[in-house]
Amino acid sequence: MGQLLRGLFWVTVYAFVIVAPLLVARVGPQRDGQGFVTDFSVALGFVALAIMILQFGLVARLQRIAAPFGLDALVQYHRQIGFVALSFALVHPALVFLNDPAKLALLDFPHAPNRARFAVSSVLALLVLVATSIWRKRLRLGYEVWQLLHALLAVAVVSFGLAHMAGVFYYAASPWQQILWMALAAFVVGDLLWVRILKPLSLRRKPWVVDEVIAERGESFTVMLRPEGHEGMRFEPGQFAWLFLDQSAFSPSAHPFSLSSSAEHPERIGFTIKARGDFTSKVGAIAAGTRAYVDGPYGLFTSDQNEGFGFVFIAGGVGITPIVSMLRTMADREDRRPCVLIYGSKDWESVILRDDLSALKEKLSLTIVHVLERADEDWQGERGFIDLPLLKRHLPRRFERYRYFVCGPTPMMDAMEKALVLAGVPDEHVQTERFDMV
């Protein structure tokens, strides 16, 4: 209930800040409007700018804000609400031009007034920001390059947007409106100060060192870290953290990975990482003794907060890593509740942490169902993809009493969310985590 109330509080604050520019516009002496269409377009512009300002807070990795929702959920919301802000930002000038076609002259960038140049620059920066996020891989932008570009473009969008509003001034002339927008601008500055300076300083006080790098099946590696000068990091099994590996804590790019080690051993933590390009392709070459920093833990995808009669884990590929953390923790705690793991892989040799899973079967009440996309002729197990008929074959008796954890590629996640509903699993018993943070 406490988390629910905190979640409602932050949702209320978020909604209030978005509509605050419209509410403040009604405070104090009223100016004559410019007509309904123009006034409505300005309202859309205000809301779009407020949303973009709040985007900084959604991904600032603030524990108090993230705790009720899970940081992965906030990141997904951050992505979706960005499209809303873009829509409002495009409709805003479109309505102005439709209402008064003569104002199309404001698009003559070399001869337009500064307020119009700021508006055009803000919208163009927002278009590039969204396009590079949607088509990052198609544009062959490395994760580190994209992350830095994304941050710079976001600052440009908000800065140009605020400058445009100040230039128009007519709709932000009252003292209350000016105070509000100055407060929102200060929020952006404070957020950048926290993310780029204060948080890295706090991470530097708790450095880690690479203890060993273990080659795994499926082109994956497990990076084991030990704390240097501190007791380690307490976390709940299944959570994730941002990892700065062989780079400064002030680096503009960090990488989110699920912890794959047992929560019972905060003094030695591990991340199992699949080599998929960019930074991850270099993990196998990291030497023992390399300095690292860890920002976390984050996430609600954990058996500690979703206890039940038993667990059904559904994983695809490297989505097995948070689930292995839960299983290892259960083994260390001698937890004998029944578990079923349904794990999809490309082939038998690419089953990540296969030997570890076999060893865990000896310590837990664990049933493992491997599903291979490509299998040899002598394979006696499941083939193809995890779907509803396969689930029905392997769900335990009284399956509605179990808690379900699903993690894997986006297509698998979409399919499982629908299949579990059709299978009769209560929606409140299902926890999902999408590990694509971009």
How would you describe the overall organization of this protein?
The protein has eleven helices and twelve strands. The radius of gyration is 25 Å and the shape is elongated. It folds into three domains: 202 residues, Four Helix Bundle (Hemerythrin (Met), subunit A), CATH 1.20.120; 91 residues, Translation factors (Elongation Factor Tu (Ef-tu), domain 3); 129 residues, Nucleotide-binding domain of ferredoxin-NADP reductase (FNR) module (Rossmann fold), CATH 3.40.50.80. Helices cover 45% and strands 17% of the residues. Helix 1 runs antiparallel to helix 2, helix 2 packs antiparallel against helix 4 and helix 2 runs parallel beside helix 7. It is of the alpha/beta class and 438 residues long. Strand 1 and strand 2 form a beta hairpin. The longest helix has 30 residues.
The CATH topology of the largest domain is: Four Helix Bundle (Hemerythrin (Met), subunit A)
Distance separating the two termini: 31 Å
For the record, the CATH architecture of the largest domain stands as Up-down Bundle
Structural class by secondary-structure content: alpha/beta
Shape: elongated
- How many H/I helical runs? 11
Helix content: 40-55%
> Within the largest sheet, what's the order of strands?
4-3-6-1-2-5
SSE order: HHHHHHHEEEEEEEHEHEEHEHE
> What is the makeup of the main sheet?
6 strands, antiparallel
Tell me, rounded to a whole number, the average pLDDT: 90
Q: How many discrete structural domains?
A: 3
Report the strand count. Answer: 12
CATH class of the largest domain: Mainly Alpha
Q: Can you tell me the residue ranges where pLDDT is under 50 for at least 5 consecutive residues? A: none
User: Using only CA atoms, what is the Rg?
Assistant: 25 Å
* Oligomeric state of this protein: single chain
- Beta percentage is 15-25%
